């Protein structure tokens, strides 16, 4: 089974969480390459990382876009969490992974302060949950907990 790159990045980042056991060495190898793409921009601001992610997404380079969105989210650019959620839950997305998208929607919902946007995020969260199998829901819960543990307290950067 090939996991989308964000799943791999999350699982590598969260090695202290049992979710990491889902990976084998073959699946972890591409993560280092794609993680390097997002992390090579470590001197860039979160908004610049996000902008690069948008440009890559618009070119159809979804895995690389996810790496940049993830780098921006790690640095407190919470709108990148929303991008990651939609990137992983869109019906036609080549990196679709509903449990990963669900976890990002949950984190984005936690960070969102605007009531209307909260309602939109919650609606999408519930739609994704409704189409997941029990096994996917279990995986989504583990990913949500791990994301919250590692990024839940990251302060918003404008």
CA-based shape: globular
Mean pLDDT: 79
* Class from helix and strand fractions: mainly alpha
Fraction of residues in β-strands = under 5%
Note the gap between the termini.
Answer: 37 Å
> How many helix segments?
8
> For the CA atoms, what is the radius of gyration?
14 Å
Biggest beta-sheet profile: none
Query: Count of DSSP E strands?
Result: 0
Secondary-structure blueprint of this entry?
Elements: H1 5-13, H2 25-39, H3 46-58, H4 62-74, H5 79-89, H6 98-111, H7 115-131, H8 134-151
Helix pairs in contact: 1-2, 2-4, 3-4, 4-5, 5-6, 6-7, 6-8
Word description of this protein:
With 158 residues, this protein is mainly α. It is 70% helix and 0% strand. The protein is globular, with a radius of gyration of 14 Å.
Which key features would you list for this structure?
mainly alpha; single chain; 158 residues; 8 helices
Provide a concise account of the structure shown.
This protein is mainly α and 158 residues long. The chain has one domain. Helix content is 70%, strand content 0%.
């Amino acid at each position: 089974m090939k996991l989308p790159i964000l799943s791999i990045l999350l699982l590598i980042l969260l090695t202290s969480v049992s979710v990491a056991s889902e990976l084998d060495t073959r699946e972890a190898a591409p993560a280092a390459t794609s993680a390097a793409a997002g992390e090579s921009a470590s001197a860039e601001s979160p908004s610049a990382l996000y902008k690069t992610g948008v440009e890559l997404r618009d070119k159809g380079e979804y895995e690389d876009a996810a790496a940049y969105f993830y780098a921006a989210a790690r640095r407190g650019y919470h709108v990148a969490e929303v991008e990651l959620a939609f990137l992983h839950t869109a019906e036609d997305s080549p990196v679709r992974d509903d449990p990963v998208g669900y976890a990002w929607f949950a984190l984005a919902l936690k960070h969102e302060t605007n009531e209307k946007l909260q309602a939109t995020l919650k609606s999408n969260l519930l739609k994704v949950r409704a189409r997941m199998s029990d096994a996917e829901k279990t995986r989504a819960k583990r990913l949500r907990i791990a994301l919250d543990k590692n990024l839940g307290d990251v302060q918003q950067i404008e």
